[in-house]
Amino acid sequence: MSDQATANEFFIWGIDFAAYGPVELSTLIDWIKDGRVLAETWVFTGRTGSWLRAAEIPELVKLKVFLDPISATEFSIAVSSAGIKPGSLRRIKILASLNDAQLAHLAQFMEMERLPQWAVVVKQGDPGDAMYLIIDGELRARITSGGKETILATFGAGDFFGDMALFDNGPRSADVVANKDSTVLKLSTIAFERLVREAPDVAAPFLQAAAKTLAARIRTDNKRLDRVTQQFTASR
Questions:
Q1: Residues 208 and 98 sit within 8 Å (Cβ to Cβ)
Q2: Contact 76, 48 (CB under 8 A)
């Protein structure tokens, strides 16, 4: 193996007992973010000519890829106990800044739900009691008036919706329906209150990421409303 790998190449030892590579450092980091390589995954480094745990590789230590490493076993057990595949959490955009320990802790406050096509996840007018993070599939937000459906937004893997319920238990502003079979993570308002009390170090970055996305949505909606207003004014 050492004769094949250059100083900047890596081979990853898979769970099927096969080595994958060679890959460059950037690819290795992408695999870590995707959950394919964990802190305790064995990696052969061309620079050292030896096998090391991913969390021990000098290049990754320097880049602080594993900010708060926990063992692969601890991470898998913590996340799997919530019925969630470890790699699935990395698909959610607002969780990208959380390290393994924070993700494992957050998973304990969530429920995974599998939704068949056409399932109504939330119904307009019902009290908001949870937010949802999409692992896979596709859903749409809609309002219905006079028997006619208007689609407000479409959500795919990595997106989330219903986040206002964490701050305000007011009525849902729209239905959300599964366009096809989907898998979501549900964070109820009760679980969120527990999260804030018991794990503020996890709740803070999670809320910050959610707030940034919410602010971006509001700015986009404001621009859309401004364009509609200008068009209406011009047509008068």
A1: no
A2: no
CB of 168 closer than 8 Å to CB of 128: yes
Ordered alpha helix ranges (H), the chain: 25-33, 58-63, 72-80, 100-107, 189-198, 200-235
Tens of pLDDT, residue by residue, the chain (236 residues) = 544 457 778 999 887 778 888 998 888 888 887 767 877 789 999 888 899 888 888 888 777 766 554 555 555 555 566 667 666 777 788 887 777 778 878 888 888 888 999 999 999 999 999 999 998 899 999 998 888 999 999 999 889 999 888 888 889 999 999 999 998 999 999 999 998 888 887 888 888 888 887 777 778 777 777 776 776 676 66
- Chain-centroid distance of CA 233 in Å reads 41
Encoded tokens for 55: 């969390």
Q: Which residues pair with 134 in a beta bridge?
A: 184
What is the C-alpha separation between 124 and 11, in angstroms, rounded? 51
Q: Using CA atoms, how far apart are residues 218 and 67, in angstroms rounded to an integer?
A: 32
